[in-house]
Amino acid sequence: MAVIKRALVSVSDKSGIVEFAQELQAFDVEILSTGGTARLLREAGVPVKDVSDYTGFPEMLDGRVKTLHPKVHGGLLGRRDLPEHVAKMKEHGIEPIDMVVVNLYPFEATVAKEGCTLEDAIENIDIGGPTMLRSAAKNNRDVTVVVDHTDYGAVIDEMKAGGGAVSQKTNFRLAVKVYQHTAAYDGAISNYLGQLTGEEKADFSETFTVQYKRAEVMRYGENPHQKAAFYVERDVEEASIATARQIQGKALSYNNIADTDAALECVKQFDEGPACVIVKHANPCGVSYGKDLLEAYSKAFSTDPESAFGGIIAFNRELDAETARAIVDKQFVEVIIAPTVSDEAAEAVAAKKNVRLLECGQWPE
Which of 124, 165, 211, 365 could anchor a disulfide with 184, C-beta 3.0 to 4.6 Å? Predict the structure, then answer.
């Protein structure tokens, strides 16, 4: 592990950057920076060298060209273990850059604003940031690259434990995160620009790019001989199986997820009172309103008790203890999902430890 001696710091989202830079300063790390990040760090008393002073080339074209320079990218891409790389860097006065801390212009937030023009969108397409990130990530054996402010603490902790160095394992993990981030970033740009014909915006993009994150590896797929994993879309907040919290029970299977999604999306259609939906093999076998949740469940169950056996039960109100006890006493159930679950209800369901109990949060009516 090589000790971090020089870092390039240039961020749009400045959350935690001052504190992170102060920690780097404590390790005597030389900090290179640009624009607003450099000003912020100086105001906080952190010594900073402007990238333009480091490269001997000024920022230009309204800030479009700041870090696109061989002294930056040579310092990132040069391999320290190859004598010919080291010799070329020395010949051209290129110093190694051991860490890059960069996040990107907020393109998605910009285009989400009402009244965003094409010019606004174009000016928020980051060029230098992704280029530095990709250079650093490619050379992750020698360079630590941090694109997410939530990683600041872990990086500093590792430097403290390692005498100012970061492990190859951590560098690789952070590099993978960079490529995931830049792929999503470029996908958002492609999706937006693909909707435009001149200044007109179409309803649908010519191509569509979306990124999902693996949430869970299934025990098996739709059938026992198949492998499967559950992926969720980035930044999903609405009440769904993807955002649900599992309170107890066995791991969800592929079929559990498919059936629970069907049950939840069905019960979300009912907003005139307490409702219950029971699903088996993706088909509702009992749906009912009630004056309270217990009545809604009892009516839904009585619709087809045989099919309800081993089914999925979804509610549109908080699961209460009385209803939970009725379910536990009356039938075998795979999954119960509700916006929220009372402590007493969770205690009642705990008598059946294999039952998967989920709460997904309340949805707007």
Answer: 211
